[in-house]
């Protein structure tokens, strides 16, 4: 029997919630924020996809450095790394140690797609594009001992043919939430967003059957898993979304996703979301300022949607779906007043949760190009500071320290006992109303045989 190759898949650690000690102190002291941190923790799905693309002639092991240390003495023939920009420095350190032992190291993921030539200087081969499009060729060359420095995607992956991630590679403990991908891409090209401009220029979808099989596989692997749909925009294709939600209903899962606000206009989707177990939707509001939103994306969609934010939030939450608002602060029209304006919007509308980040000029984005041209990217901030909670550029209307302090203040005003109690009362009122409506519908059906609309 031929000897099996040993493949190590490694996801490097990074500093969640930034390097600022005040942020870290708040994280340690806020139990509600710790729950937010815990709920949105997951594994590197891309490496599990790589595992699924790897033939049986390999023994594959997945290591998440956030929950276990990397064994640099491990028996390995090939090491594969992935990472976002905040993980890049650690990715290079890991690569150096394995390469010192003569073990070839390859890298992919978001940062490798943003700066392939930089990453290539630290590894034996870099993958640019979707794993499905490049990994089989890389393995063939590895077996022939002819690794090329770069493997670049030449055609878009057909998501309907994409394999399910090898969920069994991930620990069956430690992960409170499990990422499941149903589509790739986003119709909005925001100037500061690195994710959607690098992997594909057009949305791709898995079939509904694929998604259901993956959710069922997750349920077999983990007890009562909380599913996080990782799509950049979960509700782009309304008809497909409705079909998927109908199929999710009998599975009895709890789940969250990410989207813009547009789905609030469709009561059928809202009802199906609630009935299928949707607990929260993370929505990229980005800002509550007209000046800031004007020009933030190519179609100016978010600027035009701003006047619907309050109505959308109320409509979604009245259907029993909590809104997690994502806001990016520090753009050129933001001032120190922007923190209070953001906090006021969040509290007046009783958002279920918030993600407040410092705008970050990631490599490869139009925002980065502008700031580099103006000399505003801070040269003393290595990639490990690109956490979206650290200020790595010079804002126009405040100092970097004021930007970090302002974002933290919004968190402190939201994640505190007084507002948590007010928010709990607000949602209890909503849920009581939902229960009453359900009883009324069931009563009408029992007496007339017809559903109330």
The main pleated sheet reads as:
6 strands, parallel
Shape: globular
How many DSSP H or I helices?
Answer: 17
Q: By CATH's scheme, which homologous superfamily of the largest domain applies?
A: Aldolase class I
Strand order of the largest sheet: 2-1-3-4-5-6
Mean pLDDT reading? 92
Helix- and strand-based class? Answer: alpha/beta
Beta fraction of the residues? 15-25%
The unreliable regions are: none
As for the number of domains, it is 2
CATH architecture of the largest domain: Alpha-Beta Barrel
Secondary-structure topology with pairs:
Layout lengths: L4 E7 L9 H9 L1 H9 L5 H9 L4 E7 L13 E5 L5 H13 L4 E4 L1 H5 L1 H5 L4 E4 L2 H13 L6 E3 L24 E4 L2 E2 L19 E2 L2 H14 L4 E4 L8 H11 L5 E6 L7 H9 L2 E9 L3 H4 L7 H5 L3 H10 L3 E8 L7 H12 L4 E6 L7 H8 L26 H15 L2 H32 L5
Parallel strand pairs: 1-2, 1-3, 3-4, 4-5, 5-6, 7-10, 10-11, 11-12, 12-13, 13-14
Antiparallel strand pairs: 8-9
Helix pairs in contact: 3-7, 9-10, 14-16
Task: Supply database-style keywords.
single chain, 453 residues, Rossmann fold, TIM Barrel, 2 domains, six-stranded parallel beta sheet, 16% strand
Please, could you describe this protein's structure?
With 453 residues, the chain is of the alpha/beta class. The chain folds into two domains: 5-15 and 41-152, 3-Layer(aba) Sandwich (Rossmann fold), CATH 3.40.50.280; 176-415, TIM Barrel. Helix content is 40%, strand content 16%. The chain has 17 helices and 14 strands. It has helices at residues 21-29, 31-39, 45-53, 88-100, 110-114, 116-120, 131-143, 208-221, 238-248, 267-275, 290-293, 301-305, 309-318, 337-348, 366-373, 400-414, 417-448, and strands spanning 5-11, 58-64, 78-82, 105-108, 125-128, 150-152, 177-180, 183-184, 204-205, 226-229, 254-259, 278-286, 322-329, 353-358. The strands form three sheets. Strands 2-1-3-4-5-6 form a six-stranded parallel sheet, with helices on both faces. A six-stranded parallel sheet has the order 7-10-11-12-13-14, sandwiched between helices. It has a two-stranded antiparallel sheet with strand order 8-9. Helix 3 (45-53) packs across helix 7 and helix 9 (238-248) packs parallel to helix 10 (267-275). The longest helix has 32 residues, at 417-448. The mean pLDDT is 92.
């Amino acid at each position: 029997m031929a000897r099996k190759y040993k493949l190590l898949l490694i996801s490097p650690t990074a500093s969640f919630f930034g390097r600022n000690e005040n942020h870290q102190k708040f994280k340690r002291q806020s139990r509600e924020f710790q729950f937010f941190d815990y709920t949105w923790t997951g594994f590197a799905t891309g490496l599990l996809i790589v595992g699924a693309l790897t033939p049986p002639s390999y023994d594959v092991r997945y290591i998440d450095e956030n929950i276990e240390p990397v064994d640099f003495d491990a028996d390995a023939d090939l090491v594969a790394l992935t990472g976002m920009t905040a993980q890049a420095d650690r990715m290079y350190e890991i690569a150096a140690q394995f390469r010192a032992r003569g073990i070839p190291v390859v890298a992919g993921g978001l940062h490798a797609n943003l700066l392939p030539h930089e990453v290539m200087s630290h590894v034996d081969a870099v993958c640019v594009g979707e794993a499905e499009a490049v990994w089989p060729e890389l393995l063939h060359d590895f077996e022939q001992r002819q690794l090329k420095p770069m493997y670049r995607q030449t055609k878009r992956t057909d998501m309907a043919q994409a394999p399910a991630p090898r969920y069994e590679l991930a620990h069956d403990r430690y992960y409170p939430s499990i990422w499941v991908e149903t589509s790739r891409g986003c119709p909005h090209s925001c100037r500061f967003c690195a994710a959607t401009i690098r992997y594909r220029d057009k949305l791709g979808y898995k079939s509904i059957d694929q998604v259901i099989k993956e959710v069922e596989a997750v349920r077999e692997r983990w007890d009562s898993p909380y599913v996080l749909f990782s799509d950049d925009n979960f509700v782009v294709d309304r008809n497909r979304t409705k079909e998927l939600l109908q199929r999710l209903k009998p599975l009895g899962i709890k789940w969250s996703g990410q989207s813009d606000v547009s789905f609030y206009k469709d009561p059928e989707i809202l009802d199906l979301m609630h009935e299928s177990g949707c607990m929260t939707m993370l929505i990229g509001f980005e800002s509550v300022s007209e000046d800031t939103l004007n020009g933030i994306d190519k179609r100016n969609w978010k600027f035009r949607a701003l006047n619907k934010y309050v109505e959308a939030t109320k409509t979604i939450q009245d259907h029993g779906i909590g809104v997690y608002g994502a806001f990016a602060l520090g753009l050129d029209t933001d001032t120190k007043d922007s923190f209070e304006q953001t906090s006021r919007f969040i509290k007046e509308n009783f958002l279920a949760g918030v993600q407040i980040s410092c705008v970050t000029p990631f490599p490869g984005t139009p925002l980065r190009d502008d700031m580099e041209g103006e000399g505003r990217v801070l040269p003393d901030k290595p990639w490990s500071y690109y956490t979206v909670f650290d200020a790595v550029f010079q804002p126009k209307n405040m100092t970097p320290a004021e930007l970090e302090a302002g974002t933290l203040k919004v968190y402190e005003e939201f994640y505190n006992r007084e507002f948590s109690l007010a928010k709990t009362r607000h949602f209890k009122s909503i849920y009581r109303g939902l229960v009453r409506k359900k009883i009324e519908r069931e009563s009408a059906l029992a007496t007339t045989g017809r559903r109330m609309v």
